[in-house]
């Protein structure tokens, strides 16, 4: 029985049954625009509509959330309605859909997927995944086990929140060349190296498709490579998380 993966973001909600053997969609995904009022009740209605497209898929449902998730409870909400903060999303969404639902931070979901199926597969030690987009999401995985809600995009570097200078949105806002942006990324990753001594950096987010434009400009002691699953990673990782009953192990 395939689990179902939903990637819930500030602008879009995408979902499909997930083939956990292959780590890919088992059917074409369906996408809805995130409602302007993205309260838990409004989002649950969209989830139900989404699930109705796949009546044959009755497995557990995994959902990414753009915020800190602690034992199923949402603790922050940067790009979604603040009503999510303090909501036991596992219970609320399970009750609203009549399905077993487990929510997980979006970057953490992507990290789980990359460790199980993607570019981090087979890597022991500490893997730090970074998603470079509107902000910087991070996932810490040690020997295949996720350390959740790391939020290392909010490290203070030179008096600034790191993502305010090094996220892809900052590159676009400041009209930086790839090489100019790489200087900011270099400082960010060097800071992570100094603090955590990782074994591998993994770079995800939509901009990772242009990794050849900026990664060669970084001179780090740690290997740094682009993610493999691109925009599918969140839904795949969420489904994996749900299939394990909300476990943080990627089971390398």
Main attributes?
single chain, about 250 residues, alpha/beta, Nucleotidyltransferase, domain 5, 6-stranded mixed sheet, 5-stranded mixed sheet
Q: What's the CATH H-level homologous superfamily of the largest domain?
A: ATPase, nucleotide binding domain
CATH topology of the largest domain: Nucleotidyltransferase, domain 5
Q: How many distinct folded domains?
A: 2
Strand content: 25-35%
Helical content stands at 25-40%
Compute the number of helices.
8
The major beta sheet can be summarized as: 6 strands, mixed
Spatial gap, N to C terminus: 21 Å
**Radius of gyration using CA atoms only:** 17 Å
Report the strand count.
15
CATH top level label of the largest domain: Alpha Beta
The average pLDDT is: 94
Structural class: alpha/beta
The CATH architecture of the largest domain is 2-Layer Sandwich
Element order: H for helix, E for strand:
EEEEHEEEHEHEEEEEHHHEHEH
Question: What's the short version?
Answer:
With 252 residues, the chain is α/β, with parallel strands linked by helices. The protein is 31% helix and 25% strand. The model has no long low-confidence stretch (mean pLDDT 94).
């Amino acid at each position: 029985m395939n689990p179902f993966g939903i990637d819930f973001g500030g602008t879009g909600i995408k979902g499909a049954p997930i083939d956990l053997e292959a780590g890919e969609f088992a059917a074409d995904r369906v996408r809805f625009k995130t409602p302007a009022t993205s309260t838990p009740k409004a989002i649950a209605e969209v989830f139900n509509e989404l699930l109705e497209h796949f009546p044959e898929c009755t497995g557990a449902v995994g959902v990414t959330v753009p915020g800190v998730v602690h034992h199923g409870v949402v603790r922050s909400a940067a790009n979604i309605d603040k009503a999510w903060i303090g909501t036991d999303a596992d219970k609320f969404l399970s009750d609203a859909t009549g399905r077993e639902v487990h929510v997980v931070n979006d970057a953490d979901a992507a990290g789980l997927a990359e460790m199980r199926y993607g570019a981090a597969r087979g890597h022991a030690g500490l893997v730090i995944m970074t998603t470079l987009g509107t902000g910087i999401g991070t996932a810490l995985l040690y020997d295949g086990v996720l350390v959740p809600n790391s939020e290392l995009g909010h490290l203070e570097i030179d008096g600034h929140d790191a993502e305010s200078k090094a996220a892809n949105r900052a590159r676009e806002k400041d009209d930086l060349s790839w090489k100019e942006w790489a200087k900011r990324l270099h400082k960010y990753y060097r800071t992570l190296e100094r603090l955590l001594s990782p074994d591998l950096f993994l770079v995800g987010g939509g901009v990772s498709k242009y990794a050849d434009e900026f990664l060669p400009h970084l001179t780090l002691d740690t290997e740094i490579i682009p993610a493999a699953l691109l925009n599918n990673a969140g839904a795949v990782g969420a489904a994996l998380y749900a299939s394990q009953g909300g476990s943080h192990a990627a089971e390398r």
